[in-house]
Amino acid sequence: MKPAAWRSAAMAMAAAAALLHLCSSMAEDKIAKLPGQPQVSFQQYSGYITVDKMKRRSLFYYFAEAEADPSSKPLVLWLNGGPGCSSVGVGAFSENGPFRPSGKILVRNEFSWNKEANMLYLETPAGVGFSYSSNDSYYAEVDDKMTARDNLVFARRWLEKFPQYKHRDLYIAGESYAGHYIPQLADLMVQFNKREKIFNLKGIALGNPVLEFATDFNSRAEFLWSHGLISDSTYHIFTSACNYSRYIGEYYRDSLSPTCEKVVNQVTKETSSFVDKYDVTLDVCISSMLSQSLALSPQHVSERIDVCVEDETIDYLNRKDVQKALHAKLRGVSQWTVCSSVLEYNFLNLEIPTISVVGSLVKSGIPVLVYSGDQDSVIPLTGSRTLVQRLAKELGMNTTVPYRVWFEGKQVGGWTQVYGDMLSFATVRGASHEVPFSQPTRALGLLRAFLAGRPLPEAF
Hints:
Elements: H1 3-29, E1 44-50, E2 57-64, E3 75-79, H2 87-95, E4 99-102, E5 105-108, E6 118-123, E7 132-133, E8 140-142, H3 144-161, E9 170-175, H4 178-193, E10 201-207, H5 213-226, H6 232-240, H7 244-251, H8 258-271, H9 309-317, H10 320-325, E11 344-345, H11 355-363, E12 368-373, H12 381-394, E13 399-408, E14 411-419, E15 423-428, H13 435-438, H14 440-452
Parallel strand pairs: 3-6, 3-9, 8-11, 9-10, 10-12, 12-15
Antiparallel strand pairs: 1-2, 2-6, 2-7, 4-5, 13-14, 14-15
């Protein structure tokens, strides 16, 4: 065989071997069937992506392909917040994934986002859910920059494992502290694409996000007062003697003043532990008082993902047969938890604004949607709306869709305003901090419009 022919044959064999390795890698992560799962036609995958050179950190993912025609649908990466809470347990199994636990079985979520997209859920950073570091010292003082870097490596290596999605339209969506995770990851993708274009990033959607510490947190007082949860006198001291951003700053610096402690104790007393701060109109599950957003209510936690479905999610994901089906393992912890028991996140990162990063993304041509469940008192719509309006003004963006109502079905879905063709704000009527859980029909309509790049419906 001539040298040129030999090289050509060798290259062909190498390419075939690489393809075989990729197919084998995908096959290893394919889920045959989850315990108690109803019959479905779409494919599911889950497993680990190693994100560091020493192979000590591995991030766990769950991937549900679109219900119909996945090859034509975009890829949506979903991130929950915390920091330190699970996108698989919260996002996939309680909010917008294809199934929800019910006793010992899974039931279909008729408003799953995989009706519109291929949905990828990532437990990040290492130490969250089934994600882990074999070096425990990593868990001390994890911060936003570390998380963003690992998330970028995950995204690159996941696309290598699933090359058919490498040039697919990509969107990143999430809520709460993902207001930090998502803009920082998207910014790294934009920078990476300048060297090697592999991320076909088409937009980001931020639900009830932490974007600017003081504005977001201090809007809580007016929301609580306007919804009748605190008295006039408490509202006055909550805005004058000690506002919420000051309280959070003091709390995480271990320098809580008697004044702030007194004010927040009074707020907590009046709002009551029997009202869900993340959805002020709904009941709470007495047996389940865990929180997705530990940093947002550090002392007085009473968030629920569902009225008691959180307990069922915990039970389901701690079953050995479920973990085996998911190709998941517990490393360094005795059980799977909604929010990490080992991660020591640098909560002072809360004070670093990400609204400026959102602005740079808009300027680079990445569409941004900020949406707010209007019953959330933790990151209220008033703060998010103020920040989006301020950003639009700073960027010189004119209103293209004036503030108006939008519809889903034959009901008001919420209100919306659009600036230019890159920046949008929307409220979701009757929705909590976890919009896809509390208003699944409206959340799916919101996603559908965002992926299509069109304004929310103004008629039904």
